[in-house]
């Protein structure tokens, strides 16, 4: 049976490591502060906001909510982003997406200064992930996958990694982060031929498709480590499920992340880490 790579211990270790850094900032009169831009009152946004706020405040990161009406205009959204950019008391900004259809999400993301773009949504942040330069921050979920593997001592260098999914939020930045750690990366997507063979060759299989059971038994092999980024509501089981068929894969794999309780639990801890790093970059 595969080792379960749970996210909670990883998140705890990341948050514990932040405490002395927050203390050092506070000693200089700087309170690391995260602003969240939320448009409308979607239940999943509100619940994620509560979660992020709780986790940040626990470690001494201040939290500001910038709430706009679901019917807001592009001008109002751009003003909110400009306000965050200009506010010296805010070190990081998270903007909930997707935004309502009347809004130009790309323009709002591009307007955020990379120094405060703690979820890696602006083109400059993504350029930093691409070039390996310290321009902004990597998207939190992609970095959470690497943090989780590091926590459990999974070797990346020289290993064959297969990333399934090529979104700008997860798959693409994740493949670059793995390359930066000297993994040999194959990227798969909805047009990949022989997906199962590509996956089964990998030492590390990382799946982010938004489709339950994208990876099944034929995608794994003995000794493989599987990271399931997926988070999908399943009506049949009335539970959240990943993109990997957990029960079909756990028998063969060496280790696998559970859903829920895997990557998702690490993501907010990475976000908090980015806010503290942003405050340090500005303060020191
Ligand atoms: P997107 O819909 O933006 O991208 C999905 C990607 O998967 C695309 O590249 C698509 O290929 C590929 N894909 C879709 N179906 C298949 C298939 N059958 N076989 C191979 N590839 C396929 O999704 P996201 O990247 O935003 O999210 C992916 C998953 O990660 C979701 O389950 C989401 O809920 C989860 N997630 C979890 C987070 C967390 O913190 N735990 C945060 C963010 C996302 P193509 O490009 O060809 O269309």
H/E order of the elements? EHEHEHEHHHEHEHEEEEHEH
Radius of gyration: 19 Å
Helix and strand content put the structural class at alpha/beta
Distance between the termini: 47 Å
User: What top-tier CATH class of the largest domain fits best?
Assistant: Alpha Beta
CATH architecture of the largest domain: 3-Layer(aba) Sandwich
The geometry reads as globular
Number of separate domains = 2
Key descriptive features of the protein:
globular; 6-stranded parallel β-sheet; binds NADPH dihydro-nicotinamide-adenine-dinucleotide phosphate; Rossmann fold; alpha/beta; 284 residues; 2 domains; 16% strand; 10 helices; 3-stranded parallel β-sheet
Describe this structure in words.
This protein is α/β, with parallel strands linked by helices and 284 residues long. It has two domains: 27-114, Rossmann fold (3-Layer(aba) Sandwich), CATH 3.40.50.10860; 140-264, Rossmann fold (3-Layer(aba) Sandwich). The protein is 42% helix and 16% strand. It has ten helices and eleven strands. The strands form three sheets. It has a six-stranded parallel beta sheet with strand order 1-11-8-7-5-6. Strands 3-2-4 form a three-stranded parallel beta sheet, with helices on both faces. Strands 9-10 form a two-stranded antiparallel ribbon. Helix 6 crosses helix 10. The N and C termini lie far apart (47 Å). It binds NADPH dihydro-nicotinamide-adenine-dinucleotide phosphate. NADPH dihydro-nicotinamide-adenine-dinucleotide phosphate binds at residues 141, 164-167, 169-171, 188-192, 195, 208-211, 214, 229-232, 243, 263-264, 267.
């Amino acid at each position: 049976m595969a080792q379960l790579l749970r996210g909670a211990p990883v998140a705890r270790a990341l948050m514990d490591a932040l405490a002395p850094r927050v203390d050092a900032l506070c000693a200089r009169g700087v309170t690391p502060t995260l602003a969240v831009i939320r448009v409308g009152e979607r239940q999943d946004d509100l619940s994620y906001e509560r979660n992020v706020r709780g986790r940040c405040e626990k470690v001494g990161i201040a939290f500001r909510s910038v709430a706009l009406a679901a019917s807001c205009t592009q001008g109002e959204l751009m003003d909110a982003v400009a306000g965050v950019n200009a506010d010296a008391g805010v070190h990081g900004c998270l903007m909930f997406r997707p935004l309502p259809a009347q809004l130009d999400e790309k323009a709002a993301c591009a307007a955020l200064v990379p120094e405060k773009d703690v979820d890696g949504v602006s083109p400059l942040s993504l350029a930093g992930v691409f070039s390996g330069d310290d321009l902004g921050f990597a998207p939190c979920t992609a970095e959470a996958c690497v943090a989780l593997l590091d926590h459990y001592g999974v070797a990346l260098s020289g290993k064959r990694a297969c990333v399934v999914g090529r979104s700008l939020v997860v798959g693409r930045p994740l493949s670059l982060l793995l390359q930066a750690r000297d993994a040999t990366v194959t990227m798969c997507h909805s047009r990949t031929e022989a997906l199962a063979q590509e996956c089964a060759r990998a030492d590390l299989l990382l799946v982010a498709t938004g489709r339950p059971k994208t990876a099944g038994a034929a995608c794994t092999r003995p000794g493989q480590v599987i990271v399931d980024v997926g988070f999908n509501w399943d009506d049949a089981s009335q539970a959240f499920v990943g993109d990997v068929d957990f029960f079909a894969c756990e028998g063969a794999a060496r280790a696998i992340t559970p859903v829920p309780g895997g990557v998702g639990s690490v993501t907010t801890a990475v976000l908090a880490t980015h806010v503290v790093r942003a405050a340090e970059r500005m303060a020191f």
